[in-house]
Amino acid sequence: MKNGSFNSKLGIRAKLIIYFSLLFIFIFSIMQVVEIVGIPGTRLTGSIGQQREEAFASLNLIADLKKDRLEDWLKDRFNDLDSIFNNKLVKTNLNLVHSDVHQLLDAGASYDEIWEVSPSRENYFNLLDFIDVEKPSFSTYHKVSLLDSSEGMVLFSTDSNDLGLTFDQTPGVNENVVVGTFSISDVMLSPENGQPTLYISWMIPADYGSEHLLLVLEVNVDEIFAPMLHTGEGLGERGEALLVNKSVEILTSLKHKLPDGSDAQPLRFKINAKPAVLAAVGHEGIIETEDYRGVPVLAAYRHIPISTETGWGLVVKRDRDEVFAPIRQNIIYAAVIGIIGIIAAILLITALASRITTPIMKLSRLAERVSGGELDVVTEVASTDEVGVLAAAFNAMLQNIRKWQEELEAKVDARTIELKDVNEELLAEITQRKLVEMSLKESHDLINAVIEGSQDAIFVKDVESRYLLVNKAILRIFNIKAVDLLGKDDYALFSPEDADRMRADDREIIESGKAKTFEETTHVGSDKITWHTTKVPFTDSEGNIKGIIGISRNISSLKAAEEERRQLEAKVLHAQKLESLGVLAGGIAHDFNNLLVAILGNSDIMMLELPKTSPARAHLKEVIKASHRAADLCKQMLAYSGKGKFVIDRIDVSNTVREITEMLEVSISKKSTLKFNLADDLPKIEADGTQIRQVFMNLITNASEASDSKQVLITVTTSSMYCDREYLEGMDIGKDLPEAVYVFVEVSDNGSGMDPETQRKIFEPFFTTKFTGRGLGLAAVLGIVRGHNGAIKIYSEPGKGTTIKVLFPVSDGESVESKVMETPVTDNSGSWRGKGTVLLVDDEEIIQRLGKSMLGRLGFDVITASDGVSALETFREHSDEIVGVILDMTMPIMDGEETFRELRKIDPDVKVILTSGYHEQDVTSRFSGKGLSGFLQKPYLFTDFKDLLRNVLGNDKSVS
Amino acid sequence: MRLSGVVICCIALLLMAGSCSGPDNSRDGAASDDNTPDLSKHPIYSKYEFSDDPMVIDIGVQPLWLPTSIISEAMKRDKILREELAKDGYEIRFHSFLKGSDVNFFLKAGLLEAGIGGDMPALMAAAETGAVITTMMQQGFVSIIATRHMTMEDLKGMRIGYPFGSNAHYALLVALNTAGLNETDVSLIRLEVNEMEKSLADGEIDAFSAWEPTPSVSLAGNDNFVVIHKSLSTGYLYFAPDVVRESRETVSQIIAAVMRVFNWVQYHHENLAKGCEWAISAAEEFSSEEFRLTVGQVVEMSTHDLLGPFKGALLPENFPDDRLEREFKFLKELGKMPESSDWEGVSSLFDRSYGKDVLAREDAYRLSEYNYEF
Description:
Chain A is of the alpha+beta class and 960 residues long. Chain A is built from 27 helices and 27 strands. Chain A starts with a helix and ends in a 7-residue tail after the last helix. Chain B contains 15 helices and 9 strands. The longest helix of chain B has 20 residues, at 248-267. Chain B starts with a helix and ends in a 14-residue tail after the last helix. In chain B, strands 1, 2, 3, 4, 5, 6, 7, 8 and 9 form a 9-stranded mixed beta sheet that branches.
């Protein structure tokens, strides 16, 4: 250590000399400091304090003396005034001068004449004589004047030039002086000579008239006060006394020049030094500060009131340097004596130290020889003091050292052999440990490579969920440095809610000691990340759980893809559901139609057979009416399934709406009001007018029932628009339509609206929210719009209303011919009857029976077949007698289409009437150009059946 | 022990020695207590009988304030004053107080109709009670006395005695302020003026602030006492607003009595000496102590403060001046004036018109007639 080495180099003698020298210097310094500055907080002020106090006492004394002198001088002036007015000669002559002037004025003399005459008059001379005689007393005054208070003029003056001047021209004269009292003006510059002048005045009553006389004495301040201030002892060479007025302007010249080298002029130089300012405003005291030169001074300041209104400030000061000059001299003397004393003390200490340290040095040198290996030396014991005892002890110590050395050498030899063996074992152990370390390092590198190479987040936490290890993937994902994360917990990475949950997971794993795999979602800013996380507890060698190892994989994109697939599946399922419902509705409609054929057909026949007066006719009419309504339902179902009747034409949608306006207004609820915004000149669409009207009817009827309680406003809007891909993607039905111009119909209501669940289901058949509804209206709309390659969009909010927008593709402009087979004009007159055999093919026995009955009533023979195969066999057997075939479209084994083709093969001229519950367009489009003779839409009435047969077979051999 | 240890021990011993002999600041704390005490149970004042009769004017005077007490003592003996007041059915009674704030306490309580006090009490009376200040009584100095020559800066940390709410209180605060000190830089100790000298002589305080004659008496009795600071100070006669409102003539007669005293003491030197004797007797009676200034010393003091450049009685023109304005604002800043008071309001209560009216009718007010009880 540094201090240790320093101490070891210094001998006792040197230390003694240094320590005692420093002690002497310290004590001497303290004594000097106390002597000079005293002890703070005590009455021991030191020589500086004493000198300062003495200087202040001296300045106080001088200031008081000068103040007394100035005040006495002022008193003398009042005494002068008093003596003047108490002098009968003066008083008489003053009054005579006064009365002379007034008598002359009364006699009409001009002022110039008066002033020429007046000084030569006796009383004037008497006054001047008096002043001349009393000159020693009046030498103080620069001028003595007498003024007439009523005229305001100077009547008498020791300076005849002043005669005739007025108050305005005589500065410092206070015409408001109270009679019988004196007044002192403040010092001001005389207009006559520019000197600072003091004006003292006294007002007395005059003998002549009722006026007053004002006696004014003028004093040159600098002449009078400067000697008073600058004379006297105790201020040293540079000390000074100065006088200021209330505005702190100097009244007399200064002893020193100003810092800029100029001389300060009375009443033209204002002092800012603190003592002058304090004295001017009424304070007295002592202060240590800087004077007007910026020189540090000790000052005493006094206030001299000269009237109730004003006063002067007196400052007596000495330069600080000058005050303390004797102290500095004393300090130098004391320092020289002190240094001599210290040197003497050091010499004395050096001699004393040598006597103490010489025997010790001898021992020291001997010890050096011993340390050099000379153990056989012996020192001489020359005294019995502490050093002699030390020498004897030294000799004994040497003897013991020799003995210990021999024992030590023997022990060292034995230990050396032991150490050699231990060294060899240690070397082997070190080699083994290095191998283990290398192996460990390789393992560590491998694990590190796995961890750092992983794209998954891998981390290790302690039992307090603080990160002990994180891989690069975490740092990259969270854009954070390892140093900022290690030692911190999940609150450094995640929101408090996420971190709370993670902390709970960690606690669960640590407490259970079991691994856990789970999915979790975290929030990083506005992004959500879904993790597939596995956390495993890890333990120390004793099985204590020390923390958690975790691997988290970001499966956000996987989850997103899964969600997308799920939504797609839902859409497909929905589409399949609608498709299945369509098939189901179609199938039901087909079967119902067959049943309705039987009901309607038989009812129709019964109506024909019953007498017109039969009461059963009314009931039968109800059956027929109900059957028609059932047939309408079948149509709706067929429309939904896309198998309704189509008659394609070019349609103006606005006109179509107008056509049904009247019907709408009577059929919708009374609580509904219709409003139309129909565009003119809309592009035409290719559509079945009946179905389009059904669409509008269904939408508007639906809207009118949108609210049970309140008035509903229904707005129907038609227009056209270009629909881009994005717009079409937003449609509920018809997302796949191409970008193009579409005509649209929009039906809006302000009814109760729909929730999302209802919106999703409204196109499903049989779904209804109404007590009386059948749930086929909007299903039919869907089927019709689909059938016309259109699209549907629903906007609805519960409580606000619903808007359903339907798009139809614009026609390409080519004329569209009705694609339905033209129906020949029929002649309904008379009772037509056929002849020949008709093959009736239908898998429904009930239809077969009805057909046989109807055909029989029309005069035909009937052969029936219940499927296509048996029909072909029958036709081959009776082809020469069969005049026509009535063929059902849907049959088992061989359907109507195939049977038709086979029949045509057998007889290309065979007349075949096809019947089906499906719509005509659908059926006839498949048989277009193939020689189909007619189509009979199930269910049908007897009259329809008869009309068609007559049209197909009427001009033929079958007609009778 | 190492040398450094020796040095540290020596310094510590020296500092301990220094601190043991330093001023003891623990007794009174650093800041003063500005709460006005309840004087109704004061050992002296509790014996006073103030009149409820509206025709009796109770006036508070200060026998321990020279040379002002010369005027009040002469007024007590002024037969002309009594005669003139009796013409209107009025009577005047004088009550002695230790200081101006005590006068104000009873003025505020409605027990006094008029009072005599210095700058600070007069301003406080105007600010607190709306008292009208009509007459200037004297122009002298308030002094700070210590046992050695020192500057105001040297007072830092020292114990200073002061009479609360008086001219001397204000003068002390201003003097401290001129040295950049405030009340917290020193230990302010409330004392009455008659306790000051003994406290300083016994070393209980390091300095005190007081008006005449306390400084002169103390200096005369203690060779080691010195004046370290003086501040110009004035004394006033002021009246409760009710009296001014209800009886202008009575107020004028009292002012005339003050002016009459001024004329009387100036009329002949013996008159002044007589007035000084009366003032000394009053001080001795009030303090129950022998007055240690001679009549000659009091005459000299009076010549300066009453009859020097000071004109007496009449408020000067353009008064109150900027000195009083500074004083008011300084006291307001220190929180010693009512929060609601302002200089415009207070300055408007200095009314010179009474004095001027009396002077204009000096014969009617018998200013040159003298009839005092000897």
